[in-house]
Design a protein that fits this description.
Structural class: alpha/beta
CATH architecture of the largest domain: Alpha-Beta Barrel
Number of strands: 11
Strand content: 5-15%
Distance between the termini: 21 Å
Strand order of the largest sheet: 1-9-8-6-5-4-3-2
Oligomer: single chain
Length: about 350
């Protein structure tokens, strides 16, 4: 099923993960120009910002690239839960000379209900479009297929993989539990099997008829070779690209990631309201403390909780504390390297060739 890479038009079986807030046109262009698939994360962007980023990207490369949108169910409002969360965060806000927001609002819209983003994607026609947290309705899929886009969906289980196949996806991204950033489960209230990248990749390769791209904990050419041996057509790397100078990573986030053996990760829902893997930080320590209270303080639904998280990060950063940011990272964080994206892609290619000898 390597024809998927031929259809996209890339030489290397390497996808840069479309990390919202971290991926930039410069990063995506450098990766694509090096023969892999660069990407932009549009899940937290407005339609206007998405158009602008894709315009900047196309000015830097004529190679294929990948964009991603979030297809989460709209948040369920719960005023009591939201007020309790703000009250629990208030002492931390005040420690940094600020007050929490008086109320919370979702900072961005799901693609499920965002016709402006659909119009932007139809007009700009990115070569590859992927979906996280679910699959859009048939009308949106039909509109995107009409642009000629290759369509991919993240899956964390066989059931989600089968749903992607039934919806006519051209491929599925197998997101293992090791992956950094938001867990892509379709239903966050359902039981999560927490399948690792290797097990999930092999299951989807054996059970589906569409190509599988493996994602989660892959940081070097040996990791890419491992998932290719399991039948994946490509590997998607996110954390591995975070330290590239072309990313939008803050100096503090980059330093924390590159702290070698100190780069430990944990799953938390407190930053955004949805389970995600990040570096251990001041925010994750606060989340642990709130979770052990009686009764435990539970964050609002995703992405409403993100409003509070972003505000707290801004307040703390203004006083020189950067440990409340969303420092997403996968379990392979201790293997992170810092080098320009084109050089990194070339390094991965060399490592992959050596691993396949």
């Amino acid at each position: 099923m390597t024809h998927l890479l031929e259809r996209i038009g890339i030489e290397l079986p390497i996808f840069q993960a479309p990390m919202a807030g971290v991926s930039t046109p410069a990063l995506a262009a450098a990766v694509s120009n090096a023969g892999a698939l660069g990407a932009l994360g549009l899940g937290s962007s407005t339609a206007g910002a998405a158009r602008a980023m894709m315009g900047q990207l196309r000015a830097l490369t004529d190679r294929p690239f990948h964009v991603n949108v979030f297809v989460n169910e709209p948040a369920r409002r719960d005023s009591r839960r939201e007020s309790a969360w703000l009250a629990a965060l208030a002492p931390t806000f005040r420690a940094y000379g600020a007050e929490p927001p008086s109320s919370l609002e979702p900072p961005y819209r799901s693609f499920r209900e965002n016709d402006e983003m659909l119009a932007a994607l139809r007009e700009t026609a990115p070569p590859v479009v992927s979906f996280h947290f679910g699959i859009p309705d048939a009308r949106r899929l039909m509109a995107l297929r009409a642009t000629g886009a290759v369509l991919l969906a993240s899956a964390t289980s066989l059931a989600e993989g089968r749903a992607a196949e039934a919806a006519g996806m051209d491929g599925v991204i197998a997101q293992g539990y090791e992956a950094g950033g938001h867990r892509g489960v379709f239903d966050p209230t359902a039981v999560d099997e927490r399948l690792g990248t290797l097990a999930l990749t092999r299951i989807l390769v054996r059970r589906l008829s569409i190509p599988v791209i493996a994602a989660g904990g892959i940081m070097d050419g040996d990791g890419i070779a491992a998932v290719l041996r399991l039948g994946a057509v490509a590997a998607q790397l996110g954390t591995a690209f975070v330290a590239c100078p072309e990313s939008a990573t803050s100096p503090q986030y980059r330093a924390a990631l590159l702290a070698s053996d100190e780069a430990h990760t944990v799953m938390t829902s407190s930053i955004s309201g949805r389970l995600a893997r990040c570096l251990v930080s001041r925010f994750t320590a606060l989340a642990d403390e709130l979770a052990t209270r009686t009764p435990p303080v539970i964050p609002p639904d995703y992405p409403i909780a993100y409003h509070a998280g972003k505000a707290l990060h801004a307040a703390a950063s203004a006083r020189g504390e950067h440990g409340f940011g969303a420092q997403w990272a996968g379990q392979g964080a201790a293997l992170a390297r810092s080098m320009p994206a084109a050089e990194f892609v070339a390094t991965l290619g060399r490592e992959l060739r050596l691993a396949q000898c």
